[in-house]
Amino acid sequence: MTKFKLLRWLLIIFTTLLLSFLLPQLIKMSSESSTRYDFTYYSSVVRQFSFIRMGKTDIIREDAQGRTYTEEQFDSILPLFYYRQMLSDGRMPDSIHGTAVSIDRIKKGNFYFRLKPRDVDRPKLLLFPMYESMSGRVKLDVPDDVFRCSDRFEFIDVEANSVNDAKSQRYQQAMERAGFQFPAQWVAGIPTTRKAYDEGYFIKDASGQVFHVKQVNGKPFVNNTGIGDEINALHFKMEEAPDRRFYGFVFDDQNTMYMVENTTYKLRPLPFRYNYQSENIMIMANMLYWNVNISSGKGKRTIAINSQTLEKVDEVFQPAQPDTWDQLAQVVIPFRIEVEHLNSAYVYPKFFLSSPWSWMVSVILALMWAVLYRQRRDKMSYTTCIGWILVTGLFGFISLFFYRK
Fold it and tell me: How far apart are the two ends of the chain, measured CA to CA in Å?
């Protein structure tokens, strides 16, 4: 092979790979339409799911039995969701099916939880502020230092950019007395002052045990939760709920999600399967029911859970509708390279194969090339080009056509 032919094929290979990245992106940008799911919420009044969907000319509000409602009527069957509007109208009920309703109970029972795979698989700044959990003040104070926990527990003075040896030693000794084995695998917490109270951090040690670490009256508080004895805790997401009923949610290697009860650290499994690495979850909770929305490329599941027993009450599924991009990708594109991903905040090249139907297009393009350039004298180049199109499809065809001379 001459240097000219070698250079030509290097250019063809490079252009084919470049097209496998750029062309799918252009097609996706011009044809993709995001899936819109109906707003779904479990009614504590009629005890079934209610929906808001867009009609041809107006907004349709209905329940699972197909009964339609006006906007005011819809507020009335979802009083715990539209409680501000109900209070403003003077229509807030005193009780719902025998359960007393008050503003204090509504506010304490409401919380909003959301987790995406990109929130988990992303670069993390492994420096955390340790707030005072028993300050007695409404507003949390920002400390002058941050800590890191890897091979050891260290506090770093932010202004001096130096290790606070005395404070680090106190926490290091407290961790060791509690049985913590370094290095730490992960640290979970809410490192912000924009919260009503502070419960510190949950840290998984080298042996798989999960420890609760916080600062109480200026002293370290370290407690082995025992979570590691029951499950393999892969991820922990804290949620400081208004009623302080639980610390947050922990996820294991069996696609099970657990609520971690306050003080006792008891694990309460939730009645559904959820993969935190590939699915989005959103919980809209009220004092009577949790509305759990789990979405992926297949569709959205909405699960109603009794807030006290954590038992499943009802479930509904809305399948995702394939858009123009999905249909084109299955037919035209044999493979593609992506550097940005829905389930990760990291940027790296990843190779995706398409449907076997796309290879039919590759065969058609290869036949077209065979007919158009059957008079070429270089038979080896002729057959090589046909093979290249069969493997790379549209991308290879465009590259060969561009460098055909």
Answer: 16
